[in-house]
Structures are given as C-alpha cells and as structure tokens.
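ok trying this again, last paste got cut off
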Amino acid sequence: LVTVLGLHSVWSLPIRGSGGGVLGTLSTYFPEKRMPDEREIRVANVMTETAALVIEKSGAAEQHRALLQETSHQKSLYEAAVSNTPDLVYVFDLDYRFTYANPALLRMWGKTWEESIGKTCLEIGYEPWHAEMHAREIDEVVRTKERVKGEVPFSGPLGRRIYEYILSPVRGEDDRVVAVSGITRDVTDRKREEERAVFLSGLTRRLANVTSEQGLMKVAAEELGSFLNAHRCYFVECRPDENRVKVGPNWLRSSTTVDLEGEMNLFDFGGREWWEQYSSGNFVVRDVREDPLMRDKAANYQQVDILSYAVQPYKTDGENTAVLGVTSDEPRDWSADELGLIESVMARTWPLVERARAEKALRESGERLR
C-alpha cells in the first residue's frame, strides 16, 4: 500500500506516557528516500508529547466517567439493599441525631423521613433510659473507634420486640470518627424459640422425676402458668355422658384466687356445645362477657375470676378428653405461639399421667391378688 501511494521512506516515534509506557506511535512518511532533518525531528517530538497528553487526558476522563458510573451503580445497589432489608439501618451524627434511617426503621417507628431525620432518640419517642444508653454507646464508639454490640427491647407500632444491634465508627480522611452507623435486627421470634426450648427442656427434666398423676399435673400446671404469666392453670377431664367435668390440681398466681380443683356440672360453664368446641383444639376466649358461646355463663366465670382463657386437648379413649387450660383475670389476646406451647406441654404431660394411672392400677390389682 505504501509503494502504491508513492511513499518510499517512513520514520516512526513511540508516544510515551508519563509513566514511560508506550501509548502508541507517530509515523511520518516521505515520497523520497531520506532521513528527517533536525527541524522535522523537533516537530515530531513535540507532536508525540502532545499526543501523549491528549491520550492520557482522554483515558483519565474515560476512567473517571467509568468510575462515576460504577459509583452510581454501587450507590443504587446499596440504596436498594438498605431499602428492602428487614433489618434497621441508620446513621447518627456526633450530636446523637439521626442523619439516615432506612424504610424498615421508619416503619418500626411509625414515622416519616421528615419527622425523623435530625431528631435524637428521645425526640423520636425512645424511653429516657434507652436514649441515654445509645448516647453513651455513641460516645464509646467515637472514643475507642471500636464497634459496640447490644440487645434491647423496644415498644412501637409493632408491639414490644427484642432487637440486637451493632454500632460502628464511620471514619473521615484523617481517621477521626465523623459519624456512627448502626444496623439492628429483630430477634424476637428467635428469642421466643430459644426461651420455649429452654422451658420445654426444663419441664421434661422435672416431669422425669415425678411418678404420681397428681404430681405430674401439678408440675406441668405450675411451669406453664408461670411461664405464660397466667392467672390460673389446670387440667380438666370430662365425661359428657355424665355431664360432669373434673378439674385437676390448680396452679394459682395469687393465694387469693379461687381453687377450682374438684368436680363440677358441665352446664355451669357451657354445656355440650361448649365442651365440643372447648375440647376440639386451639380454643380461646378473649373475654367471656363478649363471646357468644360464653355470654350467658359469664357471671359464673366472673365469680371465679376468669375473664379469658385458652385450652388445648389430648384425646384419651372414646368420647373422653383431657384438656389443659390457662386463664386470665382480665381480657387477653392469646397468640398462636402460646397455643402451640400449651399443646406441647399437654403432649408431654398427659401420656405420663396415663402411664402413672396404669402403673397404679396394676399395683393395686397385684395387691388385691395377694
């Protein structure tokens, strides 16, 4: 191609960057065979230096644009992450004021961004002890430049929940702490599961050391009633064909509470329809004065300080059913977790009661045959 164009000599110079690397070449072609003169060499050198500046500046600009795009992309990803995570993400300034709160935290507070940013914990509605605790922790993070971890209860629109949190230093260019970031996780359900597991493990150990049916019912009623902060806890057995209910040993929170242990008339507290629902499982009454099934018997319940209760059954033989009941002397919303726990206690306890009865009957039978 060069000869076709009538060019017979070429001189090429490298275009070197500021670091010495070759960025490209500058080539000069001549129609005749010759070497460049001094002026041409100076011009070529100036051109290579100029080209190097243009190339490096262009590359730096492109890198800067790419960096900005990457930074913008990463910022978008970060904002999407903290906006959609169930964890609570926030930043404090050194005056203990929130400078950032993600949507999950705003929901937990029941507030908008405008109502929250620039406010302290106390101004947002934290209890004084809670706000003071976080202020001390922020000071500690600033002083030590180390993370602080903790666990704390908080009551808000979601009810009373348990939260684990980590506060971390945000460092400036001179390594000073310029802010404190935090992330908090709701661990209420996990804590409840842990407490439930510990409770059931302890109950199982206690039941293992008891051999009498009365003793088994007492231990289970005491453990469950205390754990649920109930008013009364007991086991109930019923023979519908006899219209009688038999109430086992009661655990009572107060010594002034009426003890219901003994036999009672089925119709004093509800009748057959009531018993069918009572013994069918997951049966709760928030307020006996308002429940359609309880309303006409409400006075009988109030006489023994029962305004609310929850029960779970254990089917024995035929129509006979045993029920574990927990009561409250004020209206109460029983949760699914509480019903599940009552069911678990019943499932652990009643087979042991039946075994104790069978062993007792066997002993008595053997004694009669002697």
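PB: full thing came through this time. Residues 9-81 form one domain.
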